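Long-time lurker. I teach an intro course on protein structure, and each term I like to show students one example going from raw sequence to a predicted 3D structure in token notation. This year I'd like something fresh instead of my usual example. Would anyone be willing to generate the tokens for the chain below so I can use it in lecture? Attribution to the forum is fine with me.
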Amino acid sequence: MILPPPLRPGDAVRVVAPSSPFEPAALEKGLEVLSGRLGLRPRMRNDLVARRGYLAGDDARRADEWREAVADPEARAIFCARGGYGAMRILPAVDPAPLLARPRALVGFSDITAIHAVLNRAGLATVHGPVVTQLGRAPDDAVRHLEAVLFGGAPRPNAWEVPALGAGLVAARTIRPGRASGPLLGGTLTILAHLAGTPFAPSLEGAILLLEDVGEKPYRIDRCLTQLRLAGALDGLAALAIGQLTSCDDAGVLAADIVREAALALGVPAIEGLPVGHDDANFAVPLGARATLVAPAPGDEGPPRLLFDEWATRAGAA
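-- Reply from a regular --
Happy to contribute to a lecture. Here you go:
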């Protein structure tokens, strides 16, 4: 797996909108975080704010914008303005080769799960983290964590210690005890399920699968998990890491219960309650890079946690 090098203050970064349109005010607040708080120089096309129904402009605009961002010789990262829907429509235009030749971090989540899947499958690690329109309302600890993930400097984590800032995350509970290491893959459950059966679906054998979602009723969560299971996508999974299931409960049925049942049926180490997903406190995680999941049994020391093993080694990269 190729790890993009850490960012440095003053770096130019591209902002793209491969999915849905957004409110300009939310974008401006996020850009202030990128430039003022993180010291980066965001650049974007004039038509970034384009709208075509539920898309940020037509497919041709969004695909051209992606290719232009990737070809920018000065940009050292690509930040997505918003998720929503639409990234799957331009996947044929997402050529991983230029990013493999000159690695840069892709930052985003939600609908951007589709692009993460393509790049991770090709061998590039990416960052599942806040989109720009979410950054303006992110709490300070989530921004500081993102800074540590992007700029490096976090110590290499010890699998039996609480992770330092940027070196991992603590979860709320153990679903099934155990410990496993492997590439961290995944993102939004609905997008992963919709990729099943396409040439863009990630191979999850031996992986730690990260799942989160928003606004999906429990039966839809069940349907997505069942689709992945029936497609064989969950065969050989090493572990399961569950993030936020935002606004997914319905009529007294908890989405977390549906996921727990599926996790126990898989028989792999599993944790839940990671601060990753559609809540404002969306903490960044490196996808594609090797990680360790620790799910303590009752009486074991330390909290359930996800550690960014391989990502921490890139701190000294050029």
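Some talking points for your students: The mean pLDDT is 96. The CA atoms of residues 176 and 264 lie 7 Å apart.
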